[in-house]
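Weekly modeling sync, notes
Attendees: S.R. (lead), two postdocs, one rotation student

Agenda item 3: backlog of single-chain predictions. S.R. asked that every request posted to the team notebook include the full sequence so nobody has to chase files. The rotation student volunteered to paste the first one in as an example of the format we agreed on. Action items at the bottom.

Example entry:
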Amino acid sequence: MKNTFKKKQELSQDQKAKTFWSWFEKNQNKYLFLSDVDEEEKENLLNIFLEELQKFNEHLYFEIGGHPDDEKVELIISAEGNTDFFPAVEDLTAYAPSLKNWEIIAFKPPMGKGFKMEFHGIKFDPETIIYVPLHSENNPNSIGINVCYPDFEESEKEVYLTGTFLMLDTILGEKSSALDIDYLNVIKTPEDIAEYNFSHLSDIAEFVDEKKNT
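Predicted structure, as returned to the notebook:
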């Protein structure tokens, strides 16, 4: 007698989203107090979460946190700025359940000013770093900037670019940083910078809002 086997049916994206949120609802309490567990257990829980999340889409990531005094813990679903997977973030969060202890957020939100960071040994401070707006004759409403660093070296361009994108993610939020800025370059601060119409990177949100609303 010939045996026949049914091919395992691939889940649709809707089904995958529902499966993920069903898992999260059952396991949510494990993630409410991550700061209270030891590092080994915390890492294990985060790895399990990422594994479950990437069953929906392997290019998605997450952050769990928020202010200790907030009533709800934030769960941020992110594509790490990769616009190809922004629809996946929106699709997944559209299916998110309403949970008493959680605020579920699509994309890293803007965090504003007042921070400094270090990346690969280079310090980044938006309050002191300047940018020069660029103008396109073909598309005057587009947003392009040169971000200037006095110690910039071409050999470290990728580090400066990544550090700049990380700052913009924090200031503007993941979605605006990826979609609103059409062109970005990092350069050595020109010697005649005083002759340029420059601003500090900490004020980039105002510039983006102004360009988008003209």
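Discussion: group reviewed the output briefly. The longest helix spans residues 39-56.
Action items: rotation student to repeat for the remaining queue; S.R. to check formatting next week.
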